[in-house]
Amino acid sequence: MVNKIRKAVFPAAGLGTRFLPATKASPKEMLALVDKPLIQYVVEESVASGIESILIITGRDKSAIENHFDISFEMEQMLIERGKTEMFEQIRAISDIARISYTRQKQALGLGHAIYQAKDFVGSEPFAALLADDIVDSEKPALQQMVEVYEKYNAPVIATMQVAGEDISRFGVIDADEVEPNVFKIKDMVEKPAYAEAPSDLAIIGRYIFTPDIFEAIEQTKPGSGGEIQITDAMRILLKKRPFYAVKLEGTRHDAGDKLGFLIATVELALKRADLGKEFREYLKGLNLR
Ligand code: UTP
Known about the structure:
Layout: E1 7-12, E2 32-33, E3 36-37, H1 38-48, E4 53-58, H2 62-68, H3 73-81, H4 85-95, E5 99-104, H5 111-116, H6 119-122, E6 127-130, E7 134-137, H7 142-153, E8 157-162, E9 172-180, E10 183-191, E11 202-210, H8 214-219, H9 231-239, E12 245-248, E13 252-255, H10 259-272, H11 277-285
Parallel strand pairs: 1-4, 1-6, 4-5, 8-12
Antiparallel strand pairs: 2-3, 6-11, 7-13, 8-11, 9-10, 10-12
Bound molecules: uridine 5'-triphosphate.
């Protein structure tokens, strides 16, 4: 029987060194694209994909994330007093979005180690893990696209996207057979291969559906590059024991954990906004670019 995916884990305990100094005292996941923090985009995506219960893995500076999803009493009072009802409703909706709990990864020992902190929360259910760095702008929520593949094959699913040229070396890359359009059965995966050695142009991006046996695999995973417990290494252990699938997502993926990717995402999302898009487009058209 296929269990419904009800729970999601959001690792948010990384150091965010690519975004210093912005991330010196506040979490990368609270950086805002236009006016919404990255973590809110992915939490909303998960809720739109059927997730009911959320665990955010935090590290230092946990309070900004917690406060964001909590009721902001003084702010709400002030908005009501000033008659800003619509704004009040928007702010209140953030705290009503889902059941969210928090746990702490005491040291940033890698993504695999961060996900391991969710063991008790997950129990014996399949679950999703989402990285706020990867913002996917798509018709159907990215996680929903993956849930459909999970339900069909009853096996773990990772998200993948095609990456052209040498940029592939910045990602985990899969070696896989396409079993139906945009769905792949994975044979192997490698972390950040040299361009010439990449087994395909299919990069792993920050969305995963795991079964609880991933925790046993993480326990067996030795620290890899940078002394970190890599989730790709844990997935390779599990791959020897069970089928693993990948879905090529429909939509545009933005690497919002990187300065250039963040700027691109900001421009693209701002252009799509009903309240800003028109004026912003006019401004961009007026830039004297060559
Ligand atoms: P990244 O590889 O982007 O690492 O992590 P990072 O430390 O956040 O950022 P850079 O590379 O130093 O700029 C991918 C995701 O995994 C989480 C991060 O918070 C991010 O969402 N993560 C990573 C953890 O929660 N714990 C870790 O030990 C490592």
